[in-house]
Amino acid sequence: MNNFWAAPDAAEYTRALSGHFNALTPENQMKPDSLQPRRDTFQFGPADRFVAFAKEHRMAVHGHTLVWHQQNPDWLEGASWTRPELISALSNHVTTIVAHFKEDIALWDVVNEAMGDNGKFRDSFWKKSLGDDNHDGIPDYIDLAFRFARQADRDCILVYNDYGAEHSGAKADAILKMTRELKRGGTPIDAVGFQFHIKGLRFDFDDFRKNARRFTSAGLKVFITEADFAIPPPVTPEKLAAQSKLCGEMVRAARAISGCAGVFWWGVTDRHSWLNMPEFVKGGADGLLFDREYTPKPCYRAVQEALR
Length: 308
Ligand code: G3I
Hints:
- By secondary structure, the protein is of the alpha/beta class.
- The chain contains 11 helices and 8 strands.
């Protein structure tokens, strides 16, 4: 949730966030348009506030995200760039931010959602502008972004994050191929984030385990970065039970994969969730551990059980 400290239900939100989780991810406040709304003018206020909250409550912070095709400021996508100028702007964005948070953020989504569902790279502003001449068909910006992040912090875990790659298929295959090739070429990539925005209350965790192990065998850590399990309306006790089973299975699967280094939910309460944004989401909501009144749901207990 954005700027939760200013929400009418700030006290309840704060209690749930700090009382039940040991890490947090700002949902929007570390994205490019938030952190660098004007060229060379960085705005760290809201993001710093998340970090201060995390420190106060001894929580880790997952930085999300340095380079994406969405939520870019107008000065970036609206201008025309020479290649050296754009590489310099990319370097400035990534290194300034990673350096700013160096003491407090040990895990960054460096590149988010570069791959299309068909296993071909998304034709984003970054790909179109910088091409893919230098890295065997992998858009140059990906390698550059990881290298710049590493320059600014040599210890941080650098993550490639995407959705729809939790299960096997063209997208997961293409991401695996990309990460292997990047590693082979010396790009400092440490981990892959599986977002886990799951619709339809169905998921094959055997397939996930096999898929994730391909990545850990390639020398990468894996994370579950943005979990939610949308319930198609109406919410019924049966559907809550099905959701609960999936959440428990996800946590058990994560624990069974050596090299799976963390599980994050994409929100705290069903009251504040991107699944409630009709412009984005069809196919359900109520995907989180706490309901709209901040009551722990059956899935909360299933996760607790799976963590024992
Ligand atoms: O803050 C403005 C507000 O001032 C304005 O009145 C309102 C009008 O639409 O928009 C508000 O901004 C919205 C912002 O969320 C904050 O609520 C943006 O329009 C909206 O586009 C933005 O959506 C975010 C979305 O990423 C952007 O693509 C969601 O909150 C956020 O949950 C979602 O997160 C992504 C991850 O970053 C990457 N993985 C998928 C995940 C879900 O889509």
